[in-house]
Design a protein that fits this description.
- The protein has helices at 3-35, 49-78, 85-110.
- The chain is mainly alpha-helical.
- The chain is elongated and about 55 Å long.
- The protein starts with a helix and ends with a helix.
- The chain has one domain (3-110).
- It contains three helices and no strands.
Length: 113
């Protein structure tokens, strides 16, 4: 495979996976907030049944997909060739944002008032 094609596919993969990670993280945070709201699970909250079923059945597979996506990003980040510091810093900031969203998801589940 040509080096230019490999670098191009690496950039496209990084862009797609980093944006997917941020989107999945926000969806998980919103689902976790709903899951921790007592009105969400009752008919008094006004939420549709399909939304409750989705939050119950989709949350953990989505969380697994997000962690797998994060692992893929770290693998792309650590694989050769070496990059310049500005590019590496930007990529580390994307990974850090995804990790923060995952930690917020976990914190919302643990910090139940």
């Amino acid at each position: 495979m040509e080096p230019a094609l490999t670098e191009w596919s690496r950039k496209i993969g990084w862009l797609a996976m980093s944006r997917l990670g941020i989107a999945l993280g926000w969806i998980e945070v919103m689902m976790q907030v709903l899951r921790e709201t007592p009105e969400f699970w009752t008919n008094a909250g006004g939420y549709p049944v399909w939304m409750r079923d989705g939050a119950r059945e989709v949350f953990y597979p989505l969380l697994f997909l997000s962690v797998a996506n994060l692992a893929g990003l770290v693998w792309i980040l650590l694989s050769p060739p070496a990059r310049s510091w500005p590019v590496l810093r930007r990529q580390l900031s994307w990974v850090a944002a995804i990790v923060v969203l995952l930690l917020v998801t976990v914190a919302i589940g643990v910090w139940d008032e």
